[in-house]
């Protein structure tokens, strides 16, 4: 059973998402909160698999709540998914840096929401390749942080190659094709790289690849 916690200051949004998620046999909404502070307490109490959290809220916003969840070792298995009205808004990169596994636009199709919850609960890539490419295009305007000590120096050449391909927006199958290896081996390289650089998920791996200078944004 996938356990979901909803954090949003709009009751209509919470009730709509809850009604949809509770219809599924393999998904259960364990609690709701109207602000980030209340939500943090419920996360610690219920230890959900997925937290769907609005990015802009009173008291404690979604970015700060995500940062606090990501920093707590007791919540290492909690995957935070940001909810936003605007898609590629100015807050998304801060949310990903804070530890979010990805983001969803609130007007997402029901089937896409259910798919995203299931994917995130497995710890797989919530960001589809098309979304990753959008992140990369937006990242062209962002400053790079080439500070040493990111953990990338611990990666093998094959792991670095796999990370670079992920940062270019390739799926696991596409990484496997490019490296002429099996999809399972590609996933192993990516997972080992995530462990070595202490990335919670694929989204953080992409951000780290660009911030570290492993991959340079392309202006074309």
TrEMBL record:
It holds the Pfam family GerE. InterPro entries: CheY-like_superfamily (IPR011006), NreC/VraR/RcsB-like_REC (IPR058245), Sig_transdc_resp-reg_C-effctor (IPR016032), Sig_transdc_resp-reg_receiver (IPR001789), Tscrpt_reg_LuxR_C (IPR000792), WalR-like (IPR039420). The modification 4-aspartylphosphate is found at residue 54. It comes from the Bacteria. Residues 3-121 form the Response regulatory domain. Keywords: DNA-binding, Phosphoprotein, Transcription, Transcription regulation. Gene3D superfamilies: 3.40.50.2300. CDD domains: LuxR_C_like, REC_NarL-like. Residues 148-213 form the HTH luxR-type domain. SUPFAM superfamilies: C-terminal effector domain of the bipartite response regulators, CheY-like. This is Response regulator transcription factor. It comes from Streptomyces lannensis. The lineage of its organism: Bacteria, Bacillati, Actinomycetota, Actinomycetes, Kitasatosporales.
């Amino acid at each position: 059973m996938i356990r979901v916690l909803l954090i949003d200051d709009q009751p209509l949004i919470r009730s709509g998402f809850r009604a949809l998620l509770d219809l599924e046999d393999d998904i259960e909404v364990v609690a709701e909160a109207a602000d980030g502070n209340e939500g943090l307490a419920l996360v610690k109490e219920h230890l959900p698999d997925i937290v769907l959290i609005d990015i802009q809220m009173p008291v404690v916003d979604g970015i700060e709540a995500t940062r606090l969840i990501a920093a707590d070792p007791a919540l290492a298995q909690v995957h935070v998914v940001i909810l936003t009205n605007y898609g590629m808004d100015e807050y998304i990169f801060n949310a990903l840096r804070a530890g979010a596994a990805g983001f969803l636009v609130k007007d997402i199709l029901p089937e896409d929401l259910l798919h995203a919850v299931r994917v995130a609960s497995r710890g797989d890539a919530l960001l589809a390749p098309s979304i990753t490419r959008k992140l990369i295009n937006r990242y062209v305007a962002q400053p790079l942080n080439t500070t040493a000590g990111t953990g990338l120096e611990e990666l093998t050449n094959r792991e670095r190659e796999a990370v670079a391909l992920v940062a270019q927006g390739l799926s696991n199958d596409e990484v496997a094709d490019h490296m002429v290896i099996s999809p399972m081996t590609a996933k192993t390289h990516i997972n080992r790289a995530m462990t070595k650089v202490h990335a919670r998920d694929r989204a953080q791996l992409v951000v780290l690849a660009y911030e570290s200078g492993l991959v340079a944004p392309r202006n074309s």
